[in-house]
User: Fold this.
Amino acid sequence: MQVQTAHEFYEFPTIFIEPDEMETLEHPFGTRSGASAIQYATSVKRYVYPESVKNPENNIFMQCLSNQTAPGVPKEYYYIHLSPYQHETKHIIDEVSPLMKNPDEFEVGAIYTFILASIGVRQTQETHGSHPVFTPCTDKALYVAKANNIFEHGTKHQQIFFRMCQMEERTLTECAKSHKKGGRQGNPCFALFSSGEIRCTGPNSLVFNFFSGTYKMKSHVTSKQKVTHNETAVITSIINSIAPSYRVGHMDKPFITLSETPVTESELQRLEQHEIPVLRFGSGYECQAFYRELRIRSQGKWLSNDELRRVAREIREKLASASASASGSASASGSAHSWKDTVQRWIPPGLPFSKWHGGKKRTAGKRKSSTKKRNHTRRS
Assistant:
């Protein structure tokens, strides 16, 4: 293994698995299975079922994000009404971020999200009690989509799985039919081995990471050197097998950030040319307030463009009224008015503002629970 400092742009070390070490990891063990060390190096992190991915309740959207502005220039926040789950707008995403399977070429300077997965079925086996056993129908494959901007339309990992369900629909069906048990078809699913981001840093060089908030890759690929090393070897081996002209390294740094993948004016114009509503706001609070009210009014349904524009007009009027009310109260008390004051006057009944405006409730709950456990351990 070789560790180098990458380009000054990154200022993070890059781990490279050298050819001689890779050859050792790929050499078969002297066992009946004849498997190699690299085949045992990764494990299934999660089983992902098509019915769960396709369930509208599990859809994931980017909400209100800002553009990258020069110092001292006020930021603008955007709500972009584009869904990767709607067939009618699929071509708009495919135009700039097509889903690729085992690509052998990458665009220099581009950033991608990737999923390493195989297709198979999970069935209960008599020899394993009630625990379902995964039987693969395909080899591991690398699914990749270019992240066009910070909104990641169609390139968040759960959205990629949705697109994989469409791409692999026939394979999933055939896999289920080929594994019947008691007259019933098997339950097809994807076995997720790894997910993260890839950046093409040159004509023959790639770096990748294991950043995936949806599937909590950082909890699986820990800071322990051996675990990271083994997972790095697996991804390196897969990419080398499908794109042998690239030198591949691992970097523990996110690539999809506001500074690296801002939403550009040309991209906004492209979306508007496709008649995708792009709503602009002067503050994050205003944009978030709009988005929350939109979710309440839509009741989980995806609104058409005309419906969205009508609802947006009504919400903006409500926002303006709430802002004027908050501003009047602030003037009477001699204090400054902010959008936070407006939102506090307009939150859903019975829901504390601290939990409503976008706090990480689940993460906070876990942190509180782990703190209690840690304190209990110390006392005992």
